[in-house]
Amino acid sequence: xxxxxxxxxxxxxxxxxxxxxxxxxxxxxxxxxxxxxxxxxxxxxxxxxxxxxxxxxxxxxxxxxxxxxxxxxxxxxxxxxxxxxxxxxxxxxxxxxxxxxxxxxxxxxxxxxxxxxxxxxxxxxxxxxxxxxxxxxxxxxxxxxxxxxxxxxxxxxxxxxxxxxxxxxxxxxxxxxxxxxxxxxxxxxxxxxxxxxxxxxxxxxxxxxxxxxxxxxxxxxxxxxxxxxxxxxxxxxxxxxxxxxxxxxxxxxxxxxxxxxxxxxxxxxxxxxxxxxxxxxxxxxxxxxxxxxxxxxxxxxxxxxxxxxxxxxxxxxxxxxxxxxxxxxxxxxxxxxxxxxxxxxxxxxxxxxxxxxxxxxxxxxxxxxxxxxxxxxxxxxxxxxxxxxxxxxxxxxxxxxxxxxxxxxxxxxxxxxxxxxxxxxxxxxxxxxxxxxxxxxxxxxxxxxxxxxxxxxxxxxxxxxxxxxxxxxxxxxxxxxxxxxxxxxxxxxxxxxxxxxxxxxxxxxxxxxxxxxxxxxxxxxxxxxxxxxxxxxxxxxxxxxxxxxxxxxxxxxxxxxxxxxxxxxxxxxxxxxxxxxxxxxxxxxxxxxxxxxxxxxxxxxxxxxxxxxxxxxxxxxxxxxxxxxxxxxxxxxxxxxxxxxxxxxxxxxxxxxxxxxxxxxxxxxxxxxxxxxxxxxxxxxxxxxxxxxxxxxxxxxxxxxxxxxxxxxxxxxxxxxxxxxxxxxxxxxxxxxxxxxxxxxxxxxxxxxxxxxxxxxxxxxxxxxxxxxxxxxxxxxxxxxxxxxxxxxxxxxxxxxxxxxxxxxxxxxxxxxxxxxxxxxxxxxxxxxxxxxxxxxxxxxxxxxxxxxxxxxxxxxxxxxxxxxxxxxxxxxxxxxxxxxxxxxxxxxxxxxxxxxxxxxxxxxxxxxxxxxxxxxxxxxxxxxxxxxxxxxxxxxxxxxxx
Amino acid sequence: xxxxxxxxxxxxxxxxxxxxxxxxxxxxxxxxxxxxxxxxxxxxxxxxxxxxxxxxxxxxxxxxxxxxxxxxxxxxxxxxxxxxxxxxxxxxxxxxxxxxxxxxxxxxxxxxxxxxxxxxxxxxxxxxxxx
Lengths: 947, 131
Known about the structure:
- The complex is a heterodimer of chains A (947) and B (131).
- By secondary structure, chain A is an alpha+beta fold.
- Chain A is built from 29 helices and 31 strands.
- Among the domains of chain A are: 313-424, Beta-Lactamase (2-Layer Sandwich), CATH 3.30.450; 441-580, PAS domain (Beta-Lactamase, 2-Layer Sandwich), CATH 3.30.450.20; 603-706, Beta-Lactamase; 707-780, no CATH class; 795-946, Histidine kinase-like ATPase, C-terminal domain (Heat Shock Protein 90).
- Chain A has a 5-stranded antiparallel beta sheet, sandwiched between helices. In chain A, strands 11-10-14-13-12 form a 5-stranded antiparallel beta sheet, with helices on both faces. Chain A has a 5-stranded antiparallel beta sheet with strand order 16-15-19-18-17, with helices on both faces.
- The longest helix of chain A is centred in the first third of the chain and has 62 residues, at 18-79.
- Chain A is elongated, with a radius of gyration of 82 Å.
- The two termini of chain A are 142 Å apart.
- Chain B has 131 residues and is an alpha/beta fold.
- Chain B has a single domain (4-122), classed as Response regulator (Rossmann fold, 3-Layer(aba) Sandwich).
- Chain B contains 5 helices and 5 strands.
- Chain B has helices spanning 13-26, 38-51, 70-80, 99-106, 121-129; strands at 4-9, 29-35, 58-61, 89-94, 111-116.
- Chain B has a 5-stranded parallel beta sheet with strand order 2-1-3-4-5, sandwiched between helices.
- Chain B is globular.
- The chains are: A alpha+beta (947), B alpha/beta (131).
């Protein structure tokens, strides 16, 4: 069992590896071929050697025979020697011997080694007399035969008498004493002939004869060499009589291989072929196995695929026993549809889940199927689910048995069509509803067919033509319009239509389209046809229509192509609404509005209305043109027009104010500026009313009144008021100054007078009188000053001239020359040359003198006084600036005093407190001002502003 | 009644001469010092405090003066006040009849009265007796 297993394992191992199996078989066969070839080679080789041995031994025998004959010959010849040692009848006997032995060419007797007798003499004369024992070449062999006392064949060698031959020498002893030799000479030619070598197949073999040279001990070959000798391609035999070796040499040593070559190669080829054959044979099952595997995989895949399709299908699939109706296999969808689990459903049959009303049909169909009357059927039926719900399905049944075979099972494909059924129901309902909508609509509705109109327009090449061209064409062809109108087919009308246009029956209405013809039908109908030409499927137009009473009614006509009929216009809905009353109401409203508008436009102010949230203006009265220069359209077209045109200085607060007021729902009245079209600022008083609906401001209405003139007057009034106030103030100041300054003197006088009255001595009285004089002088001085100031203030004798500033600065410097030199003052003047000012010369001189002399007077004790005079523009005012590096004034303390009368800040005896007071008054009298900047110990800068 | 020490602070030299006479006539004052502005007076007051010299009992103070006017003197005086142990009565004596000056004088507790020039002997006697 086990071995069998192993065996089959081995086979299958090979079967799966056809190449290795083929190789192994091929190798085994090759070795068999090699073995057989080798055996065959051995046999051939042996046969050949045997053959050659046989041939050679034949030759050997022949040669031996010849030599034996020679032996007899020599013996015979020796017998001719008589007792004296002389041959008797040599020639006679020799002749007989030669005749009897034709292999011998000649015979000799060589007494003492000298060739003395030769037969036949002819041809052998040269040998005569040769002493072979003395011949170097022959001696050794001759001595050998003597030593052996045996016949010995010497040679082959060149015979003295010519030619090649062998000499057999038989030592002859006479009376136990060496007599000489009896010799036979055999020509080699003859010897070979007798040996029979000529009979040898010369194509296969050749013959060779060799002898060890007695002199050189080297093997000499006597026959021509015809091939390689060195290999084992020969057989040899030794002939002791002549010390010869004979060879039979194979001419073709390789013929054995030649014989073997073809079969061996054939063997190999066969082995190879067999190997290949095995490979092919073995391969076949492997390929088949592969094919089987592939098919199996395909099968599995397709099974998985179909299993997946079955399980995942969006339709329910079931395999059902065609007799019992039991579910044998269902997919998930199917069980989901019914609500039963896969296990539960296997215990059910389709009869139990089918709605009883549908069961009979289903069973009838199944019966037909079973009987082979039909091959499949489809039907819509109802299932009852586990939960008792009725669902609509579309059932398709296909048998699983072949035609004319016994019914077995069938496949039921079940599709849930509940939704479709439901929507069908809905559709039906909605159709009913829409039908009633159509019929009961308060609008008069026509369902009409415009296809003939469109075709007619198409024939006229008006479809997709430019609207202007269509209009022009139709206007000039009223008969075409009439034709078009008659081509409209009324399909249906609703109840309202009947009521309004009141033909007695629908039918009558359908045939009398002409009731629509009002007085200006062409006008709107041209538009309508134009819209059809342009492919517009919806159209809203106002038109007139004549009702059965013959009244012309205004209607609003809506033309709408029913979806799906856009190309043909076979179905079109025309809705008409009687708007006669509305139109007339509109007209009245329009008239009222126009009246109000014209009223509003007469109001001298911009009447406006805007949205409370966005501040978008919806109305602006015409007056805006007069007041601001803009048109109402300009204003209302831009949402931010108002904001954008408020004066930049007012825009921020105005918008904030407005927002606050609107948020508080409070009406307001305020004034601001707007920029007019010509760029000027216009003062507006804006009276705003907020329209509140349900607690929130929805819109605002108001009026903007031009108050520019009032504003200007107000401004002027303000200015003059300020001026008067200022002048009053100055006057008050002045009177205060006057009273103060005068009072100090009068009080002194009063005191002095009092003292005089109560004086007890004349001396005392005189002293008082003196004092009175002093007081009187200073009072006088004060009066002069006051007079001067009054003069300045009342502009008495004030004449302004155009005067050169530089020149006056020079004059002031000249007046102060002494002090300038004394105090080493440097004055820098940075003013454009030839600057002229319109000023009173005396004032200018006085101003310059006062300020420069002040600068010198209040110089810093530790510094070289430096005064800088500059001229520049500041805010459109000319400024003459005089700065020094003097002691400066603490302006924090003295700001209010610096320009006051009799205000001094130091104990400087020259300080009178009148110079800057006068200066200030002079500058102000010329319409300018003076300011001062100063810091103690740093210096003072006066700026004189000149108009 | 002890005779009092009086200081007159005024920049009007003629007034100074006249007040000197009037003070002498009144016979109520032991000594009389005159200062031509507030600065001189405050310096002298500080100096006297330092040297523990006798301080004035009465000061007649003008308002409009260079360098340091009457109001400025009052501000400086307030700073020195904590160091002063005895009573110093201050009267404004001014040629100004402006109500604002008069009102301003009332804001200073140290100022006992506001006299308009001219000052008579009777005025001085009244002041001197007003303790």
